[in-house]
Amino acid sequence: MLSIAHSPDADDVFMFYAIAFGWVDLPKAFSHHALDIETLNTQALQGAYDISAISFGLYPLIADQYALLGCAASFGQGYGPKLIRKASKKLKKHFKVALSGRYTTNALLFRLYYPHARVIYKNFLEIEGAVLSGEVDAGVLIHESILDFHPDLVVEKEIWEVWCELSNSELPLPLGGMVLRRSIPLIQAIALEKKLTQAIDLALAHSGLLSTMLIERGLVRVQADNLATYLTLYANASRLSEAQIQGLNALFDLGFQHGLYPAPLRTQDYLIPKRYHSLRFS
C-alpha cells in the first residue's frame, strides 16, 4: 500500500482532498497521514512515507532518497512567514525566538539572517502564545497564523524581506513541496505525479465547492474568508514555473554556501523525468 503524508494546514488539505474525496483515483491503494510539517520533515529523514510533504529547506538532506514532485508546492511572492513580537518589546541582538522546526525553510533563513538569536522550537500553533506570555521575545508565524494574530503583536520582519536580502533577488520564496520515494518504479512515479497534478487542477477548478466541503467537515482550521485568502496565497498552480525553479536553486545555493548542505544541487536534476514515459513507449 502506498503511504501519503501531508500537513494539516489549509493549502495541503486543499491540494490533497480531491483524492481523499474520490474525485481522482490513484493507481494503487494508499494510506493517508496528516502531520505537522516538522514531524513530516523528521520522518522524511527516516524515509517513513512513499510520498510526503516537506519543507524545501530540508530537501538537499534527503535528495538521495526522494525525488522532487513538480506539483503541490507552496511559494511566497511578496509574502510569507512573519517574525512577530509584542508591540511594547524591543528586540536585542541575542533575543529569544520560537521557530516552527529545525528543518523548516523559514528556520533556515531566520538562522542565517539572525545568527545571534537564541532559538527554541515549538509546534507552530504554540508560537503566538509563547510570544504573548513572554516565554520568548519573538516568534515566526507560519501557515494560517500569518493572517490573524493577536492585536498586541506586530511584525518585526517579513521572512520575504529576509529572503530577498539573502538571495539578492525577488524570486519566489520556496516554502514547501512534495517528494516521492526513489525506490518507486519510474513509470509508476510518473503516473502518481500525473494523478496528484490532476487532483490539484480539479481542486483549483472547483475551489468554492471543495472549500465548502472542507469547512463543513471541520478539516481546516480557518473560516471561509480566511480560507479563501490563504488559498490565494499558497494553493499555487499545479506545476512549477521557471521562476519557482530558479527560487529553489537560489535556496539550495544559499544553504550550500553556508555549509548547511553537503553538496550543491540543481532542481531540474531532481524532478521526475516525465519525458521517460513517452520515450519508453514511443
From TrEMBL:
Q: What is its EC number?
A: 4.1.99.29
Q: Which UniProt keywords are present, listed alphabetically?
A: Lyase, Menaquinone biosynthesis
Active site (UniProt): H143 (proton acceptor)
InterPro entries named in the record: Menaquinone_biosynth, MqnD
Q: What catalytic activity is recorded? A: cyclic dehypoxanthinylfutalosinate = 1,4-dihydroxy-6-naphthoate + dihydroxyacetone
- Metabolic or biological pathway: Quinol/quinone metabolism; menaquinone biosynthesis
HAMAP family assigned: MqnD
The entry's function note states: Catalyzes the conversion of cyclic dehypoxanthine futalosine (cyclic DHFL) into 1,4-dihydroxy-6-naphthoate, a step in the biosynthesis of menaquinone (MK, vitamin K2).
This chain's protein is named: 1,4-dihydroxy-6-naphtoate synthase
Q: Which organism is it from?
A: Helicobacter baculiformis
